[in-house]
Amino acid sequence: MTLHPILAAVTARITERSRATRQAYLQQVDAAAQRDPGAQRLGCANVAHAFAAMPEADKSRATALDKIKVVAPRAPNIGIVNAYNDLLSAHAPLQHYPDLIKDEARKWGATAQVAGGVPAMCDGVTQGTPGMELSLFSRDVIAMATAVSLSHDVFDAALMLGVCDKIVPGLLIGALQFGHLPTVFVPAGPMTSGLSNSEKSKVREQAAQGLVGRPELLEAESKAYHGEGTCTFYGTANSNQMLLEAMGLHVPGTAFINPGEGVRAELTREAARTVLALVKDQHFTPIGRLVDERCIVNAMVALLATGGSTNHLIHWVAVARAAGIVIDWDDFSALSDVVPLLTRVYPNGSADVNQFQAAGGPGYVIRELLDAGLMHADVMTVRPGGLREFTRIPSAHQGQLVWNEVGVSQDDTVVRPASSPFSATGGLKLLKGNLGRSVIKISAVPEAFHVIEAPARVFNSQDELQQAFKAGELDRDLVCVVRWQGPQANGMPELHKLTPPLAVLQGKGFRVALVTDGRMSGASGKVPAAIHVSPEAAAGGPLAKVRDGDRVRLDGLAGTLQVMVSEAEWAARPLAQMPAELSAANGVGMGRELFANLRRNALKAEEGACTWL
User: Fold this and answer.
1) Contact partners, residue 148, CB within 8 Å, separation at least 6
2) 3-state SS, one letter per residue, for 216-264
3) Which residue in 24, 52, 160, 517 could disulfide with 171, CB within 3.0 to 4.6 Å?
4) How far apart are CA 521 and CA 524, in angstroms?
5) Which of 366, 177, 156, 115 is nearest to 256 (CA)?
6) 474 by DSSP, 3-state: which?
C-alpha cells in the first residue's frame, strides 16, 4: 500500500527538523553499543558486586567463569526495571513477573536481574488532592529512576515492566537514554469488566447534585474498580498500551489480555525470549535505533485513530525528544486531518477495553491503518516480521503460543474498517487563537457541542469552580476558565474532578465548556474542554488576561480558541498575577517541596513539559 502523502510529508518534516539532534543521539547509541560487555569491561570488584547475590549457576553464566576458572561463553544478562507496587491494580500482577523472566532466561542459557524499581502513582487515588500535583513530574522521576537502574551497566538487554499513565512514558524516556540496549515492554493487561463506565459516570453526576450519598458512590466506584489490571476505560494507561503495540515494543497482541488469563504468563516468558533474540548479531535491534521518526509517527497515528488520551500530546513529545526527535502539536493536527477514527471506546463510546479487544483490538486497528497507507510498515520492531506481526492476536495451543489473523470486526459499534470509520478525522484537535494553543479530545464530545460561545467565568483553582457549582452560581451558558494549572504553576494536575459538575450543567441544557492550562487526562469526556493551554498563565500566557464576562469562543470545527475582545483592548490589557494565597500554598506539603526545581525548569506543555532539557 502506498503511504498517504500527508503521512509522508509530516514524517519528512519531522526528520528534517530533527536532523542534528537525532544524529547526535545515534552517535551516542552506536558508541555505547560498540563497547565490550560490562562483565568483561568492568573491574573485577565491580563485576563481583554486580553478581554477588546471583545463584552460583547464574553467576558462572554472567561472568563467563566456571568453578575451575575456565573461561566459558558469556551469557546475555537481562536488566529488569519493575514498576511493581500493589496499590496500583494494573501493577499488582508485576510482583511475580521477574521470577518468570529469570526462569525463562535460564532455559535459554541467559541470566536476568531486577536492575531497579521505579515509583508508580495512581492518578485515580490522587485526583483532586495535593498529591496529584506530583503526577506529571513523576514521569521524569521514573525516567531518572530507570537511568539509575540501568547505570550499573552490566546488561545486554532490558525488560520494562509497567503499564499506567506516567509510568510507561517515564520508562520509555529512561530506556532511550540507554538506546544501545535491545528493550521490550511487558504489560499486565486490563481488569475484567465491572460496573460499566457509563453507569459509573451516571452515579458520579448524581453525587455531584447531592442525589446520592457517599455509600452509594463508593459502592459504584468499587464495582467499577474491582480487581487486578488497568481501569477498563480508554484513558492514558490503556492508550500507552495501544501506542506501544503501534511502535512494535511489545510481544505482539499483549496489551489487552487480562491478568488472570492463562496465556498471560506465557506472553511474559515470550518477552524474555524476544529480547534475547534481539541481542544476537543477526537480529541486534537496540531501542534507540528502533524508535525512529517513522516509529514515532506510527504512535501518533494510533493515538488519533483510537481517540486516545490527550496526555500523550505531552508525553510523546517528551518521548520523541529523548530519542533526539522533535515533534509538535502541528504534526498531530496535520495527521489528525487525514487519520480516521476507527474505535468507539469509553469515553469516546460506551464500550470498555475488554470489548475493544474482543472486537479486534489493537491488531485490527494496526492492520486497517497499514492497509490504508496510514502507518509506516517499513519499521523495525522487537519481532523479525515487522509491524505486520502486530496485526494478529495471541493464544495458547497445547502449551505453545500461536498468533491468529484478527479477521473482520466482531462489533462494528466498537471498531470499524478504515473504509467506513466513525469519523474521517482523528480524535484530537489543535485549537489556536488569542488565548494561545491548546488541544481538545473532540471525538468524545457530541457534535452539538463542538462549538461553544459564551461568557467566561474565571477561576483560580478547581476548588473555586466546585464551590461555585455547589452554590448554584453556574446554571447558565458559560465558559469556565481555570488557570494557574500549568507545569510551572503547580505541576499541571489533571482536573478530572471537574467533569461531573460540568456534565450536570450540560445535562440541564446549558452550553458549557472548560478552558484551562491544566490537564483533563485520558478520561476527557463529553463536555468540550480546551486543555493544555500554552503558554500557561504562570508563564505570562494570555489566560492571565481573561476577565469574568469576556465572551469566549471554542470552535472545535475551525480549530480556534478566541476571546472576543478587540485587538487593541486585548493588547493593552495587563496580565493578572497569581493570587498571593495561591502562590504561597503551591508546592507546600505532600512532598511537593521536593519538586520545586522541576516546576522551575519545566518546558511548555507543547514541548513535553520536559524538565531535563
Assistant:
1) 116
2) HHHHHHHHHCCCCCECCCCCHHHHHHHHHHHHCCCCCCCCCCCCCCHHH
3) 160
4) 6
5) 366
6) coil
* DSSP per residue, 508-574: TT--EEEEESSB--TT--SS-EEEEEES-GGGT-GGGG--TT-EEEEETTTTEEEE---HHHHHHSP
pTM, rounded to two decimals: 0.95
Burial (0-12, 13-18, 19+ Cβ within 10 Å), 512: buried
In angstroms, the CA 78 to CA 448 distance is 53
Q: What is the pLDDT of residues 160-184, one digit of tens each?
A: 999 999 999 999 999 999 999 999 9
Q: Is 591 helix (H, G, I), strand (E, B) or coil?
A: coil
CA–CA distance, 441 with 313 (Å, rounded to integer): 11
CA–CA gap between residue 453 and residue 307 (Å, rounded): 24
How many CA atoms lie within 13 Å of 30's alpha carbon, on the beta-carbon side? Answer: 6
Phi-psi label, residue 90: left if phi above 0, alpha if psi -120 to 50, beta otherwise: alpha
Question: Is pLDDT of 73 > 70?
Answer: no
Using alpha carbons, select from 234, 247, 228 the residue that is nearest to residue 359: 234
User: What HEC string does 278-299 produce?
Assistant: HHCHHHCCCHHHHCCHHHHHHH
On the CB side of 605, CA atoms within 13 Å amount to: 32
As a whole number of angstroms, the distance between CA 157 and CA 536 comes to 40
- Quick check: 123 and 135 in contact, CB under 8 A? yes
Within 111-182, strands assigned E span 111-117, 157-161
For residue 522, name the pLDDT band (cuts at 50, 70, 90). Answer: low
CB neighbour list of residue 440: distance below 8 Å, 6 or more residues apart = 310, 428, 429, 431, 524, 528, 529, 530, 531, 554, 556
What are the backbone angles phi and psi of residue 314, rounded to the nearest 5°?
-100, -55
Q: Among 231, 185, 181, 226, which residue's Cα sits nearest to residue 83?
A: 185
